[in-house]
Design goal:
Keywords: Cytoplasm, Endonuclease, Hydrolase, Metal-binding, Nuclease, Ribosome biogenesis, rRNA processing, Zinc. GO terms for molecular function: metalloendopeptidase activity; RNA endonuclease activity; zinc ion binding. Belongs to the endoribonuclease YbeY family. Pfam families: YbeY. Its EC number is 3.1.-.-. By secondary structure, the protein is of the alpha/beta class. It has one domain: Collagenase (Catalytic Domain). The chain is 50% helix and 16% strand. It is built from 5 helices and 4 strands; from the N terminus they run βαβαββααα. The protein has a 4-stranded mixed beta sheet, with helices on both faces. Helix 1 packs across helix 4 and helix 4 packs across helix 5. The relative contact order is 0.18.
């Protein structure tokens, strides 16, 4: 897997940790090993511009996903075709605010947002209650499994 992580936010980010998360999620979702993913951390000014330009919504947001080849998850023994999955853009400043409210660390919030963004790239959504239940359940399972695997290694 080619996971590119760039930090243009001014916040300290462990880029290797986020590359490992991306690799883990894509492997768990049976995405082809030659698939490419980009994770970008930006400041609130850049995130505001992206949010207005692409979502027609004012102000910054926490995470945006920009799909490319519209890849979908595979199944055990049947991975997706290789391709360019897309970009996940995260705003650490917004993540820090949300983490305080949620009662966990900024890093945990950014890992959650990155997982959320990758699932959006894979076609998951949360517009309807049933979709939300599926996506958020999967997101929680993936993140908790990833964190447990990192602690045990």
């Amino acid at each position: 897997m080619s996971i590119e992580v760039n930090n243009e936010s001014g916040y300290e980010v462990d880029e290797a940790e986020f590359a490992a998360l991306g690799r883990f999620v894509l492997e768990e979702m049976h995405v082809h090993p030659l698939t490419e993913l980009s994770i970008l951390f930006v400041d609130t000014e850049v995130m505001t511009e992206l949010h207005v330009q692409w979502m027609d919504e004012p102000g910054p947001t926490d995470v945006l996903s920009f799909p490319m080849d519209e890849l979908r998850p595979g199944r055990e023994g049947d991975v997706t075709p290789a391709g360019l999955l897309g970009d996940v853009v995260v705003c650490p400043e917004i993540a820090a605010q949300q983490a305080t409210v949620a009662g966990h660390s900024t890093v945990e919030e950014m890992l959650l947002l990155t997982t959320h963004g990758i699932l959006h790239l894979l076609g998951y959504d949360h517009a309807e209650p049933e979709e939300e239940k599926e996506m958020f359940g999967l997101q929680r399972t993936l993140l908790l499994t990833f964190l447990a695997s990192r602690r045990s290694s």
